[in-house]
Amino acid sequence: MVAIVPADDSAATTTASAATSTTPDLRIVALIGIAAGVLGGLFGVGGGLIIVPGLVLVIRLDRRLANGTSLAATLPIALASLSVYIYNDNVDWAVAGFLTLGTVGGAVIGTKLLTTLPKRTITIVFTVTVLATAIRLFSASETTGRDELTVTIGVLLVVIGLATGTLSGLLGIGGGVVMVPAMVVALGMVPVFAKGTSVAVIVPTSIVGTMRNRKTACVDFRVAGVAGGCGAVMAIIGGMLANSISTPVSNVMFALLLFCVAATQVVTLRSDRRADIDAASTGVG
User: Which pTM was predicted?
Assistant: First the structure.
């Protein structure tokens, strides 16, 4: 497995080479996928919030390679989750269509930024996104269903989709952490419908983003296959549980999860900072 990154980013090249010099333990990758699958099905996300930190902190993949691999792994997880939500008729296809118009274009933008932005910037964006979502979930209220779609709402959904797709391509997440709160808050959608609609949008977003990442070698398909395959099985269970958990409990559980993920990213920032200092010291010596 070889990760190829832009030639003008020597620090990233060194890190990527070190990160991929040993074969990842696929048993650990499978466990990461299982955890991501349960949470993906339960909360209507692709599982990238678990997969990215797992690949970076445990498997020690380069941040760019981890993000691209995670985005590929979200595809089978989202497909499995979607099958359950479709079975329970919990997908709003009209809303999904508008969101997809934006996410597909956003995925192209995000995967382009993945190869150009510094890794520290990517990590900070990821952490801020996670924290903002967690805070918003704590203040979410009960909803009864969305209003009729209008041209204004349609345009708003496309814009939300564009932002979601950009974050998906850049951060390696499915985008549910943006779409689900947006649908609940902006449209008043019942959470289980927002989650089902979210995974429906994640599928094409993951496909487009992964096709782009393949061209820049920012994806490890073996790791993605193991994580996504194991996650897909558990995503079905998570999707079934989604119908039995109340909205307040679901929101609190998800918010607490996001706070934990954000904490791991702060640790990543600090460790990367120390590594950069050590590398600079070695270079001077």
Answer: 0.76
Lowest mean pLDDT among 15-29, 113-127, 174-188: 15-29
Structural domain range at position 267 = 19-271
Q: What is the DSSP string of 139-177?
A: T-----------HHHHHHHHHHHHHHHHHHHHH---SHH
Flag whether 106 is in a domain.
yes
Domain count, the chain: 1
Q: What's the pLDDT tens digit per position in 180-216? A: 878 887 788 888 899 899 999 999 999 999 998 999 8
Q: Which CB contacts under 8 angstroms, 24+ apart, belong to 263-270?
A: 264/53, 264/57, 265/53, 265/123, 265/126, 265/127, 265/130, 266/127, 267/57, 268/53, 268/56, 268/57, 268/123, 269/120, 269/123, 269/124, 269/127
Q: Please check whether residue 5 lies inside any domain of the structure.
A: no
